[in-house]
Amino acid sequence: MKTPRLSHRLGLNQPAHSPTARRMAEMAAAIAKDTDGEYRLDVFPESRLGPDPQMFADVQSGALDYYLSGATLGGVAPASALPMMPFAFAGLDQVFAALDGGLGEIIRGQLAAAGLFAFPRALLNGFHHITTSSRPIAAVEDFQGLRIRSPGGALAADFFATLGAEAGMVPFSGMYQALKDKRFDGQSDPLGVVQSLRLYEVQTYLSLTGHWWSGFTLLAHAATWQAVPRDIRQVVETHAEAYALLQRKDVAALNDAGEAELRRLGMVVNRADTAGMRARLGPFYARWKARFEPAVWARLEAYSGGLG
Questions:
Q1: Which pLDDT does position 305 carry in this prediction?
Q2: Which of 187, 225, 273, 279 has the maximum number of C-beta atoms within 10 A of its C-beta?
Q3: How far apart (Å, rounded) are the C-alpha atoms in residues 237 and 118?
């Protein structure tokens, strides 16, 4: 085997068998092939390079070359919280119009200012729903007193507090055990994650809420990225885009089939009354709107059709 001229590492938290980790491994193989073995990208799924906060800190410092980030960017790119705004988007077409367009440009600009290169195509995680072990979520009142593991960040904590729940955070890699140990009553994730992490083994109820969307951003340490020869960067960019689009299709299909599959696996499924949740969010939207420049908030609403 040819010794590569350049070798870098990519860390992510998703299970090795998940569509996301598989597509990243396929991307790396395609890059190696099209650079004739000159460039090797080693992919480390399942938080093998550390929990998300550590991987994010490492890609910021340059100790890690690439990182597939979820909801950990708000500290350096405040606009990255906007795609996760509750009930902002009606479907994936709206989401990706925003992220492939003007809202994504704002987010990538903030990341660039923080020393991070963000590849233009976001990857899909999906619309979140609630799983619980204690009781189903049928109406907004059922959130009262619920201890829920959330993706982290101020927006998620504020959203759940507004609905009467208490949000907490453990790293993605520790979520299964935390739910098994009853440190939380429930959690928030797309249906593909519930399947990939086998959360149906430690959660009884699935309440369909579609309360917000989340995805992944492929990041590189900017100085490291700029040091990669231009011809290799072009190959990486080409395959990063192609495999992001393939990953979107894979995960969308997994999420679409999730309700039926999780019923088959024994979860008790209900469709929650989201109108009552939305009715509680007026002050929440006002608080978050005040955090952003009017033009940035207007960009979100241009794609979402309005909030609050």
A1: 84
A2: 187
A3: 11
With cut-offs at 50, 70 and 90, classify the pLDDT of residue 3. confident
Strand, coil or helix: 38: coil
Shared domain for 185 and 297, answered yes or no, is yes
DSSP 187: E
Q: Which domain holds residue 181?
A: 127-212+258-304
Nearest CA to 299 among 28, 88, 114, 56?
Answer: 88
Strands 268-271 and 205-208, by their bridges, are parallel
- Predicted TM-score (pTM) of the model is 0.94
218 backbone dihedrals φ, ψ, rounded to 5°: -85, 115
The band of 112, judged by pLDDT with boundaries at 50, 70 and 90, is very high
Which pLDDT band, with edges at 50, 70 and 90, does 1 fall under?
A: low
CA distances to 44, 187, 246 from 197, in Å: 17, 12, 21
In a domain, 149, yes or no: yes
Tell me the C-alpha to C-alpha distance, in Å, between residue 205 and each of 145, 266, 286.
17, 9, 32
Contact between residue 247 and residue 20 where contact means Cβ atoms under 8 Å apart: yes
By the 10 Å C-beta count (0-12 exposed, 13-18 middle, 19+ buried), 34 is classed as middle
pLDDT tens per residue across span 64-93: 999 999 977 888 999 999 999 999 999 999
In this structure, what CATH number is given to the domain that contains residue 228? 3.40.190.170
C-alpha closest to that of 179 among 136, 156, 157, 150 = 150
- Say if residue 308's pLDDT is above 80: no
CA distance 245 to 251: 10
